[in-house]
Amino acid sequence: MRIPVLCYHNISRAPYFNVKRRSLHTTPLNFYLQMKLLHILGYKGLSVSDAWDYLMGKKFGKVVVLTFDDGYYDNFKNALPILKKFNFSATLFVVSDLIGSYNKWYYKEANMIKPLMNEDEIKIWIDSGMEIGSHTRTHPILTNLKEKELEDEIINSKEILERKFKVEIKHFCYPYGKYNDLVVSVVKKANYLSAWTLDRGRFKVGDDILRGKRINIPKDANIIRFYIKLFTSYEEKRALSIVQTIL
């Protein structure tokens, strides 16, 4: 059984000029149409925790896992009402030290400042039936860090979020999708149940849950491409072709 685990970033219209990473934006209309398609097809959009028994092969059904990286305010403003409309849940991976701030890790490179949710907005997100997970303290490239630095980013972010929001933080997401064996070992040490990459493909029951594959939903994913990415072997074939190119 293969389960699509979707990765979103911004749910807003991309700026038109002089910015990079426009592909990280999904318009509210496109997001609505994508969620409506799942609903029409009989699929349930679920957070990682709500989908856990499906990911573990204990339950079977038509589910898609919904994740949002970084904790942007536009997720609260634009995505949350749509998720509630369809009675879906989702996991928001929060950068713990930048709550209420902005995308400090790449705003200069992208020439674009994007505000992040504040504490009150994250509390409303949780109270609405959604979930939060950890995306480190400051969103660094983890493969560049030493073990002590990794522990600070990975373990302490979990403790900060649990203390601040009084919820158990069970799931982790690698910034930029970058990880190695040392990074994964620290994630395991922190007692996360799962950790999610940007490796392409649908999650297959039995896959390494600390190296979970996801399907990135880019700006230009119209409804046909969205369907193909989720419900055909397209992502697995693309991942294989990339590996073959490298080799």
Put the structure in a nutshell:
With 247 residues, the chain is α/β, with parallel strands linked by helices.
Explain this structure to me?
41% of the residues are buried. α1 packs parallel to α3 and α6 (147-165) runs parallel beside α7. The protein is built from nine helices and twelve strands. The two termini are 28 Å apart. The strands form three sheets. Strands 2, 5, 6, 7, 8, 9, 10 and 12 form an eight-stranded parallel sheet that branches. A two-stranded antiparallel sheet has the order 1-11. α2 (52-55) links the parallel β5 and β6. The chain has one domain (2-246): TIM Barrel. The protein is 38% helix and 19% strand. With 247 residues, the protein is α/β, with parallel strands linked by helices.
Give the topology string: H per helix, E per strand: EEEEHEHEHEHHEHEHEEEHH
Helix content: 25-40%
The number of helices is 9
Strand composition percent: 15-25%
Q: Could you say what the CATH topology is called?
A: TIM Barrel
Structural domain tally: 1
Low-pLDDT segments: 243-247
Overall mean confidence score, pLDDT? 94
Q: Compute the gyration radius: what is it?
A: 17 Å
Helix and strand arrangement:
Elements: E1 2-3, E2 5-8, E3 10-11, E4 25-26, H1 28-40, E5 44-46, H2 52-55, E6 63-70, H3 73-85, E7 91-94, H4 107-110, H5 119-127, E8 131-134, H6 147-165, E9 171-173, H7 181-189, E10 194-200, E11 203-204, E12 212-216, H8 223-231, H9 234-246
Parallel strand pairs: 2-6, 2-12, 3-4, 5-6, 6-7, 7-8, 9-10, 10-12
Antiparallel strand pairs: 1-11
Helix pairs in contact: 1-3, 6-7
